[in-house]
Amino acid sequence: MLPPSLSFAVLALGTAVYAKASFHAALQDIHIYARQQDGNATGPSTVLLADLATGGAVTPSGEIIRSILQNTAPATVDNSIVYTRPAAVANRGQGGLDSVACRQDTCCVWSYIVAPMNTSVTVPDFAQDGSVGSGGADGSLLLSAGELQRSENRGMGNYADLMLSWRNAFSRYAPGLTVADLIQVGATVATVTCPGGPRIRTFVGRPDVDGRIPPPAQHLLPSPDSSAATILELFAAKTFSATDVVALAGAHTVSHQYVTEPRYAGAPQDTTDGVFDSRFYAETEAAVPPAGIYSFQSDKQLSTDAATQSLWSQYAQPDAQTKWAEEYATAYFRLSLLGVQKLNGLTDCSGVLPLAKPVP
Ligand code: HEM
Ligand SMILES: *[C@@H]1O[C@H](CO)[C@@H](O)[C@H](O)[C@H]1NC(C)=O
Ligand SMILES: *[C@@H]1O[C@H](CO)[C@@H](O)[C@H](O)[C@H]1NC(C)=O
After folding, report:
1. What angle do CA 151, 286, 291 make, to 5 degrees?
2. CB 323 within 8 A of CB 196
3. What residue stretches are annotated with the Plant heme peroxidase family profile domain (predicted)?
4. CA–CA gap between residue 349 and residue 117 (Å, rounded)
């Protein structure tokens, strides 16, 4: 089996309102959001993003993305969706990469890139700032000076090297290849390589940030000792509902901690290492956790706080896998698009993903 690490960046949910405007503006944002939540506080967020919010869906991609963001279509694709390379490319095997036919088909180069990703670990960039339209899934993690050196991104240097090596290997076949897309495709590939991992719909076409502009605001990440309220606020400012937050926290089903508690360096957050299952929820909320796991205080808080406890315990039910994986995919899909301005212009390359495998 693959290395278990789906090895994400620790989530970076910066918000400009904290960094750049007054505290009052921040409060106002949260209140507006709270009003929007009335009546649907426990479902996935249905808030539209970027050009879909301002001008609507005007392309087939925009239409699919809109329906997923509004939770009227699933964020997953089943194993019957498989990309096939153009015939002129397919005939040439690995050599097909360097062909006109491949260059003319946006997903073609990705069908080659996923092969090394399928056998490696990857890391997406979540630092994002929707309120001012900077940051987000824009590659800044690797492109902006100093972002990778931040404490919240500790331990990601290897993944960064991997991403940049893929960019170096493949960009001559696809001049528009961006680090922002590599990070996000890496994340969805990594997720589906774990047994139980949803096959999350995957679009490409994110522009990279200009590496010369300063990196996104710092100190805006939830930390392992943040309260549930703080975590919910940070996510809410990025359009996530409480359901989304609780679902996303389930990524810790495949994580390990190293720096949070050095005495237990390497400890996983549930007992089924490398399996993308919902067991994490029951084990995190247990009064007496199983031996060998380390639970983050932030997850413990989410499992007990009045605002999230019932959501958490739904995912802790023995039969919650399907529901959780679907809701995780929906929330992750939103995360993967934050900060991208032209959602109508993206291309669906979901068919290049490895096939999903059930929980053993
Ligand atoms: C709710 C707020 C979150 C907090 C406070 C948080 C906190 C943390 C912490 C403290 C670590 C371990 C760092 C270490 O000690 O080495 C970690 C690891 C990890 N987190 Fe989160 N996290 C959050 C949300 C997320 C989300 C939304 C995802 C993915 C969708 C995610 C995916 C991961 C993964 C995959 C790892 C393991 C990284 C590795 O093994 O290299 N986390 N998180
Ligand atoms: C909740 O529902 C309202 C009304 O349908 C909608 O305007 C709002 O965007 C929704 N909020 C979220 C977070 O889904
Ligand atoms: C990913 O790896 C698995 C196991 O080695 C292999 O069966 C599968 O074909 C690979 N998928 C892709 C898309 O590379």
Report:
1. 70
2. no
3. 136-254
4. 15
Dihedral class, residue 197 (left if φ above 0, else alpha if ψ from -120 to 50, else beta) = beta
How far is Cα 236 from Cα 130, in angstroms, rounded to an integer?
11
The whole-model pTM stands at: 0.84
| Paired strand residues for 76 | 200
Ligand 3 atom closest to the CA of 111, numbered from 1: 13
Write the CATH number of the domain with boundaries 4-346: 1.10.420.10
* 260: exposed, middle or buried (Cβ count in 10 Å: 0-12, 13-18, 19+): middle
Tokens standing for residue 84: 């096939």
Nearest Cα residue to atom 3 of ligand 2: 36
Q: Please tell me if the CB atom of residue 216 comes closer than 6 angstroms to any atom of ligand 3.
A: no
Whose alpha carbon is nearest atom 13 of ligand 3?
A: 354
Cα 187 to averaged position of ligand 1 atoms, centre (Å): 13
pLDDT in tens, 284-329: 999 999 999 999 999 999 999 999 999 999 999 999 999 999 999 9
User: Residues with Cβ < 8 Å from 43, sequence gap 6 or more?
Assistant: 71, 241, 243
Give the percent of the chain with pLDDT over 90: 63
Other beta carbons within 10 angstroms of residue 84's beta carbon come to: 11
Q: For helices 321-335 and 242-249, give the axis angle rounded to 10 degrees.
A: 110
- Compute the distance between CA of residue 173 and CA of residue 161 in angstroms, rounded to an integer: 20
- CB-CB contact of 52 with 176 (8 Å): no
Ligand 2 shell residues, CB under 6 Å: 36-37, 39-40, 45-47, 241
3 state SS of 49: coil
